[in-house]
Specification:
Blueprint lengths: L1 E5 L4 H12 L6 E5 L8 E4 L2 E4 L3 H6 L4 E4 L3 H13 L3 E4 L11 E2 L2 H4 L9 E3 L3 H17 L1 E10 L6 H12 L29 H14 L5 E8 L6 E9 L5 H9 L4 E3 L11 H4 L5 E8 L6 E8 L3 H17 L8
Length: 333
């Protein structure tokens, strides 16, 4: 298995290297890929040193799988060129997610949709991934009617430069402004750009990607996405209205038995999910599970995950593992 990591010097790219090692993907050759200015850098991975190459150089090496985390424009330009040489691209940008001809995959939910013809596979948005992990078993049992979502999103979702802005502000030194306003000691009710409907692009990702992954365009979804001065992970309040009545204990059992989800819901002992405790973990954590007493068949829950792992790198590597174990790519074909 030749595996390329495109955008290897970025925050998600570096986490992809960690997750690749932890998840034991059968990598015989790693191809670290970055922009021209990073060419020639040495990357240490799994006890060996590798030299960073450019995208055209990586294409010439015809990797079996390319894990992309290099931005939508880069993906739109280069992912098809990788696909032309037989590489399966798993892309972390928003470039292909809503393309009707591309699969949008969270392995625990819909990996069964994949086959060997899918050469460009979309990794969903970080805030979408963790939410649908908690929603999928409940939708199957009770059928979701409507979602009202508020997110509290880590600055790591914006990237290294945002973390540097926050760190500079905390130290009281001039910062290069990635956000329009100070982020330290602040919350910004804007994730990504505003659209014509006054929602942000991030908020509409939650709307559109959720419906596509769950395979149900009838679900009503509205969202508010907020950037918070946190580095550990993303948090979400999710208000779920179902078509069918639910039992609260059954809800907890359904969630805790779903692979990749851990319920932390013991208010007597002050146990609930937090971004700090989710950091460096692959699971999605769910707590504060309770009925919405203002209307019937409606549930409140609090969903937390490390956005760089399950929200990005881990999900992509899990897709790659699924392809390998089901003989859909690489030497096993």
């Amino acid at each position: 298995m030749k595996v390329a990591v495109v955008g290897v010097t970025g925050m998600v790219g570096r986490v992809m290297l960690e997750v690749l090692k932890e998840h034991n993907l059968p990598v015989t050759e790693l191809i670290p890929v970055a922009s021209e200015r990073s060419k020639g850098q040495i990357i240490e991975w799994n006890g060996k040193e590798y030299t960073v190459v450019t995208i055209p150089e990586a294409i010439a090496m015809a990797p079996d799988i390319a894990l992309f985390s290099a931005g939508g424009g880069t993906s739109l330009e280069w992912a098809p060129k990788f696909a032309e040489v037989g590489t399966t691209v798993i892309d972390n940008s928003s470039a292909w997610r809503m393309d009707p001809n591309k699969k949008l995959i969270v392995p625990e939910i819909n990996a069964h949709e994949l086959d060997e013809t899918h050469k460009i596979i979309a990794n969903p948005n970080c805030s979408t991934i963790q939410m649908v992990m908690a929603l999928a078993p409940l939708h199957k049992k009770y059928k979701i009617k409507r979602l009202v979502i508020s997110t509290y999103q880590s600055i790591t979702g914006t990237g290294k430069a945002a973390v540097e802005q926050w760190e500079a502000e905390r130290q009281g030194i001039p910062a290069k402004m990635v956000y329009k306003y100070q982020i330290d000691k602040n919350c910004l009710p804007q994730c990504d750009v505003f659209l014509d409907n006054s929602y942000t692009k991030e908020e509409m990702k939650l709307v559109n990607e959720t419906r596509k992954i769950l395979g149900d365009d009838s679900i009503g979804v509205t969202a508010t996405a907020v950037r918070v001065p946190v580095v550990g992970g993303h948090s979400e309040t999710v208000n779920v209205e179902f078509h069918h009545e639910f039992d609260l204990e059954e809800v907890k059992q359904l969630l805790d038995s779903f692979k990749g989800v851990t319920v932390q819901d013991d208010i007597d002992n002050f146990i609930y999910p937090m971004p700090l405790s989710s950091q460096h973990k692959d699971d999605v954590f769910v707590g504060r599970i309770r009925r919405d007493e203002s209307q019937p068949k409606t549930l409140n829950m609090w969903v937390v995950a490390d956005n760089l792992r399950k929200g990005a790198a881990t999900n992509a590597v899990q897709i790659a593992n699924y392809l390998v174990t089901h003989n859909l790519v690489g030497e096993t074909v």
